[in-house]
Amino acid sequence: MSRSNMARPAMAPWPLVMLAAPLLPFAMLDGAALYLPQIPVALALFALSVATILARRLPASALGEAVLLLVGVAAAYAAPLVLLNQGHALAQAGGLWLYLAGATLLLWRVLALLAGVTGPARLAGPALFGMALVLLWEILTRGFQVPTILLPPPSLVATAFAANAADLWDDFRQTVLISVLRGYLIGCGAGFLVAILADRVPFLARGLLPLGNLASAVPVVGIAPIMVMWFGFDWQSKAAVIVVMTFFPMLINTLAGLQSAERIQLDLMRSYGAGYWRTLAMLRLPCALPFLFNGLKINSTLALIGAIVAEFFGTPVVGMGFRISTQVARMNLDIVWATIAVAALTGSLLYGALALAERHVTAWHPSLRKR
């Protein structure tokens, strides 16, 4: 029996708090409170959400129940957006916020059901969670009329992204394709090679590990201006900052991985007459792969952070850090958030690509067999 057809636990009663929403104002129009029966569109959406809760046991599987309840959640999240587009004020609409709170608790039930299914549908959970956060951000900022200088809604950020797509692409190319990739490859490659050398010369490892702990405590805002002074305003200074930030994490993870081979495995290689380099290539490096990928994944985010911070202290008139610093000074927070979104998406994609490569390369490793 598949997990999606197993017995489903009873739903907690917390989403039913939305049933009290009709007792409170649902919107404001020209200073007058409007209740749910006075707003036909909101009433229809509310009825749809309640109907999905009542019919949740009709589907035969957990996936079917999740899809049905998701319709009710979508209706609840659509209600405030529809009302805002119609010109209603929502700051004092207690009924609407109670309805939205109940729908968010209902979404928790949907995510719990999706976590128990198998196959591609399992991946829908994280995507729905991210979409819900973005929608709540949009609803709360617009509903409570948060000043855009403090926190612009995602719709305004998307508009700024579309209007400044060419500049954002130039920033991405300068920061990621020129500075980050070069610094990342140099830093990780140097850390890996020095780790091999330190493994071969043990006293070198004993001297480098304390330096690694010391370097991890140095703030990037402290070394970035120094590197700009040493290497200039172009990509070389940003790559230097990235090398400093990524060298020691790669070194430490590689050394830890090289020590992970078991004694009985090393004895077996010696019994075959294998020397140091053959043992390194055939046993110790394969055993170290999970540690190597840990270092690569950690450095993928550190490299992007280092490049952006370094650009605050000097850069050509392009780059993510340059864009953030200049647009903050001009109070264009929508462009700042669009740049942050590009950086966050880039970091997530880099990390995800490395994690996917790790699963394919080290699928044989015991640490991945139960994932």
UniProtKB/TrEMBL annotation:
Highest taxon above the source species: Bacteria
Membrane topology recorded in Swiss-Prot or TrEMBL: Multi-pass membrane protein
Principal subcellular localization: membrane
Pfam family, one: BPD_transp_1
Residues covered by the ABC transmembrane type-1 domain: 173-358
CDD domains on file: TM_PBP2 (cd06261)
Cellular component terms (Gene Ontology): plasma membrane
Annotated localization: Cell membrane
Membrane spanning residue stretches: 12-29, 35-54, 66-84, 96-116, 123-140, 176-198, 210-233, 239-258, 279-296, 302-323, 335-357
Keywords for this protein: Cell membrane, Membrane, Plasmid, Transmembrane, Transmembrane helix, Transport
GO biological process, one term: transmembrane transport
InterPro entries: MetI-like, MetI-like_sf
Family: Belongs to the binding-protein-dependent transport system permease family.
Protein name (database record): ABC transporter permease
Species the sequence originates in: Azospirillum oryzae
